[in-house]
Write a structure and sequence with these properties.
This protein is of the alpha/beta class and about 180 residues long. Helix content is about 40%, strand content about 20%. The chain has 2 domains: about 30 residues; about 140 residues, 3-Layer(aba) Sandwich (Rossmann fold), CATH 3.40.50. It is built from 5 helices and 7 strands; from the N terminus they run H-H-E-H-E-H-E-E-H-E-E-E. The structure holds S-adenosylmethionine.
Amino acid sequence: MLGVFILFLEVIILFAQIAIIIFFIEQLSRGGAPYVPSSRSVALCAVNALTLPTNAVFYDLGSGDGRMLRLLSLRSPTATCIGIERSLVLCLWARFLSRKFPNISIVHGDIFREPLHKATHVFTYLFSDVMDQFLPKAEHEFAPNTILLSLNFKFSQKPYDRKIDIGDKKHALYEYTF
Ligand SMILES: C[S@@+](CC[C@H](N)C(=O)[O-])C[C@H]1O[C@@H](n2cnc3c(N)ncnc32)[C@H](O)[C@@H]1O
């Protein structure tokens, strides 16, 4: 019995090690925004800043471990919450953490390739240069009145509608309407 348990533990540790190695290879081999999760207080501020109608379709572009999606789903259970994440390890981890949330789905993909025309509300925590590269796609694809909330990083070519201070000097949210 103890032998089976130790074998089971060894298999789990092996899988965890493989996942960690793949995660670091993914992060190091790609440019753009790396994985830095929003803190709980910042994520709560973002969720509180959004007023979602019952049929809202919320996207977290670069969804990491899916924490924004889960917070939003708890607050707005009727919303459809979709994450797009390019890291396979994070995508699988986020799907596991979100398995009890029927309105959350997480796509393993690139925000520059996935269709976004169904979005009504969007959250981003990416870099400024990624935001600027993303702007033409957003302008082309987002339906009129789509709201985008960006943590810390602004578009250089589009003025924001409002800046939401979060209570510390390091973070701010920028709201845009398309
Ligand atoms: C700063 S983290 C934010 C994670 C999450 N949104 C949060 O607030 O906790 C940025 C995430 O975006 C992902 N990412 C960066 N560029 C991407 C792209 N082009 N397509 C999909 N995901 C991307 C990264 O892998 C990373 O998980």
